[in-house]
Amino acid sequence: MNHFFTIDQLSSSEIMMLLKLAKKYKSCSPNVDKKIFGANLFFEPSTRTKMSFIVAQRKLGIDVLDFNESVSSTKKGESLYDTAKTFEAIGANFLVIRHQSDRWMDELKDISIPIINAGAGKSEHPTQCLLDLLTIYDSFEQFKELKISIVGDIKHSRVAHSNIKALQKLGADVYVSAPPGLEDDKLTIPNITVDQAVELSDVVMLLRVQSERHIGKNETKTDYLEKYGLTKLREKRMKKNAIILHPAPINRGIEIDSTLVECDRSRIFNQMENGVYVRMALMMKLLQDWGVLKHENVIEER
Ligand code: CP
């Protein structure tokens, strides 16, 4: 058989032969069983998170099941639950999901494989948080009493929401600096000005401005940088060993002066590098906790 275009090509005996072979694979397939499959289901755009998951998975020898939402059956109306259930059924050992809903995980309580949150609406981005923590730890080797300011659109930032909780848990002093209207009223920590933030902080974590939404008719990009962003003048007032973080993507010239993106204090590209390693660690832990990794199929960095 050169190709397989129509069922007419198979005789009844060939059909039965294929069914029996498939049943054999189903019941006893040692080579296939040793493989670990991870499915990356991104329903929102991503460069860093998606690609660093793929690099992390490949380094660990995990087979990556990529998913392109724009050409998937979600376009025919398939739900998130049925999409996840499909990947479970075809043999994914775990799922990585980014979705615009704050609480997408509530729909997936009946999924029986581990799921990693790669970004949930405005609520949480926990793997970004882990890589931010590693980047801070790389610079300071501790969190206690570090002064960390998160600057920008706090209200809509899933990065801010994950980081505030984790940094407080680890003993850091966390401050926020949000422009008017972008504060999160549910937070109890004080909102300080960006000028206060740069002077008191060991870590200044900038957030992406959603310019289409937040820069009004009377406010230019330069206005935003001058009023709320990290300008060259503000950077000069930072503490000697203070560092700059940004989860990216970056709006150069809006929340940060473009020349500061790769300045000595900036750890922005270190954050991206660390994303690979925290995701490797997290996937290994989950797979061990769920018993997917046994002695005979322990995966190692390749
Ligand atoms: N920081 C972050 O989540 O970037 P991406 O949207 O490119 O994944």
UniProtKB/TrEMBL annotation:
Keyword Transferase: yes
Pfam families named in the record: OTCace (PF00185), OTCace_N (PF02729)
Xref: PROSITE patterns: CARBAMOYLTRANSFERASE (PS00097)
Swiss-Prot/TrEMBL keywords: Pyrimidine biosynthesis, Transferase
All residue ranges annotated as the Aspartate/ornithine carbamoyltransferase Asp/Orn-binding domain in the record: 144-284
Protein residues bound to carbamoyl phosphate: R48, T49, R98, H125, Q128, A248, P249
Lineage of origin: Bacteria, Bacillati, Bacillota, Bacilli, Bacillales
Ligand binding (L-aspartate): K76, R158, R208
Protein name per its UniProtKB record: Aspartate carbamoyltransferase
Subunit structure: Heterododecamer (2C3:3R2) of six catalytic PyrB chains organized as two trimers (C3), and six regulatory PyrI chains organized as three dimers (R2).
UniProt cross-references to InterPro entries, sorted A to Z: Asp/Orn_carbamoyltranf_P-bd, Asp/Orn_carbamoylTrfase, Asp_carbamoyltransf, Asp_carbamoyltransf_Asp/Orn-bd
Reaction(s) catalysed (UniProt annotation): carbamoyl phosphate + L-aspartate = N-carbamoyl-L-aspartate + phosphate + H(+)
UniProt-recorded Gene Ontology molecular function terms: aspartate carbamoyltransferase activity
Enzyme class: transferase
Function in brief: Catalyzes the condensation of carbamoyl phosphate and aspartate to form carbamoyl aspartate and inorganic phosphate, the committed step in the de novo pyrimidine nucleotide biosynthesis pathway.
Transmembrane portions of the chain: none
Pathway where it operates: Pyrimidine metabolism; UMP biosynthesis via de novo pathway; (S)-dihydroorotate from bicarbonate: step 2/3
Recorded name of the encoding gene: pyrB
Annotated Aspartate/ornithine carbamoyltransferase carbamoyl-P binding domain residues: 3-137
